[in-house]
Amino acid sequence: MDIVLRRVLRSIIGPAGDVDWTLPWHARHGLKTWYAVCLGQYWRFASYVSTLPTERWVVRALYWLPQHARRVDRPAYTNKLQAQTNPGAAGI
Hints:
The chain is an all-alpha fold. The chain has five helices and no strands. It has helices spanning 2-13, 25-28, 34-50, 57-62, 78-85. 0% of the residues are buried.
């Protein structure tokens, strides 16, 4: 009921005079945007992980390289697809 009463009063009286309505709502209330919060959490986590001792599993997982793994490249079938759509262009 209090919400409805405040809404009616705002519609009758108008917004508060000491509020700068040209600013975004989060700046008026002293809040950060979600982008700034997420970016801060990302860098705070990166700082935490970078300062961990080397015997922690997180640090070991970051330096791990898989053995006998396929190299990252285009799929092997792309030339065959090009050969089917344009014979003579792929050289197969």
